[in-house]
Amino acid sequence: MKKNTSQSELEIKARQWLIERGVTLEDIAELVYYLQSKYHDNLTMEECIFNVDRVLSKREVQHSILTGIQLDVLAEQGKLNEPLQTTVARDESLYGIDEVIALSIVNVYGSIGFTNYGYVDKVKPGILERLNDKTTGEVHTFLDDIVGAIAAAASSRLAHGQADDRLIDL
Predict the structure, then answer these.
(1) Distance (Å, rounded) from C-alpha 76 to C-alpha 138?
(2) 9-167 sits in which CATH class?
(3) Which end of the chain is more exposed for a tag (fewer CB within 10 A), N or C?
């Protein structure tokens, strides 16, 4: 599998911000493995990482990462105006903009990602459990949904790639 080697400044920054917020490619790949291992015989973490890497190469995904993380950071610093500050800082259940941003990522590889996203958003496995922990003082209102969406999109890409990987990113 060929690794993504030509990254734009936007992609580099999006990847950097994920790491700065405590999320690695491997964390996301573990979610992909969690979602897809029962459907793919002999699925490896290398394949999961490859698919996450390809999802992260998409400009729409990079924009979503940067937008969501910026809003989380501003909320963490108390720099949003009310009532948005309280809403984002608490990750209020009826605030759905975080999911809307996540759905823009899920849609990159087709509708199959919606079911994967809904499942991990409900169950919160792996890194999502930590990101959703409200006791840390960190705000991840957007990031937990973005990470789940990246995993769901990578899972979709993996499913589609079973047919012909060469055609998946055209």
Answers:
(1) 6
(2) mainly alpha
(3) C
